[in-house]
Specification:
This protein has 14 helices and no strands. It is mainly α and about 280 residues long. The chain is globular, with a radius of gyration of 23 Å.
Length: about 280
């Protein structure tokens, strides 16, 4: 009887997970359907659920209307730089807050955490003023530098380092003559590399999908990221849904490829951090 109960629970569990997966994937599928059709098919009732045959034509139009390939490359440069930067810099800051002793440590960490309560929109004006003073308007470094570290990333790595690495291990390394940098790079960072990898992926995805800040700071089509290029496909009076969805689908393909290759490792890194403590 117990075996049958377990089998029944497993069946319903997999059925529920399968249904949830279908519901989650349907918007992506519908985006592809619209990207193969025209605006009329996208607005018909009930919505079209069968792909059309205009995807190649619309995709070609996307590349002819805006420098979309350059926009994808710009997004890749920005996202990779931010992902790597957050993985390293947030790990360094998290290590300092978790394992180093210095005056004002707890106060500084509290201030870092409090910045997460400030809406992103409130920082746009002072951030733009700083970027303008540096003559970085309409450049990729205006997107990269502000995103190299984040309050969430510092909090994430601080908590992970505090629960993963014992003080006795670091003290033993110091007795052997290791400097603070050597302790971090050779002992601490390798042990929390899965968490740093997950943080880097989260930073990559966030930077790839960011729209507001690039829309404010980028001016020329050559500097557009993928999200701004999609916005450029639309005019002020009418929206070609087929063209817009085609650009959105093309911008989503790199994310799908990334998830196929690193999705399992990302989940493993999250679960590894979830069971620490």
């Amino acid at each position: 009887m117990k075996v049958r109960t377990i089998e029944r629970v497993r069946w319903w569990t997999y059925a529920g997970l399968g249904l949830a997966a279908l519901i989650s994937l349907f918007p992506l599928y519908w985006m592809f359907v619209v990207s193969t059709s025209d605006t009329a098919a996208a607005r018909q009732q009930p919505p079209a659920v069968v792909p059309g045959g205009n995807f190649l034509h619309l995709a070609t139009t996307v590349f002819e209307t805006v420098p979309f390939l350059r926009a994808l490359l710009n997004s890749l440069i920005v996202a990779v730089s931010i992902g790597v930067g957050q993985a390293l810099l947030c790990s360094l800051a998290g290590f300092a807050f978790a394992k180093l002793r210095f005056r004002g440590r707890n106060t500084l960490f509290l201030l870092v955490v409090l910045t997460m309560t400030v809406p992103t929109q409130l920082s746009i004006i002072p951030q733009y003023m700083i970027i303008s003073k540096l003559s970085w308007v309409d450049t990729l470094q205006a997107l990269i530098v502000p995103g190299l570290a984040s309050a969430f990333g510092i909090f994430w790595m601080r908590q992970h380092l505090a629960t993963t690495i014992s003080d006795e291990l670091l003290q033993a390394a110091r007795i052997d003559g290791a400097t603070t940098w050597q302790v971090f790079w050779r002992i601490a960072f390798p042990l929390v590399r899965p968490a740093a990898f997950v943080l880097g992926l989260l930073g990559f995805v966030t930077a790839w999908n960011d729209f507001l800040w690039p829309f404010v700071v980028l001016k020329s089509p050559e500097m557009y990221t993928a999200q701004i290029a999609i916005k450029a496909l639309q005019n002020n009076y009418d929206v070609d849904l087929g063209l817009a969805m085609s650009g959105s689908f093309l911008a989503t393909i790199p994310m799908l490829i990334l998830f196929v290759f690193v999705g399992r490792r990302m989940v493993a890194g999250i679960m590894d951090g979830a069971f620490k403590g």
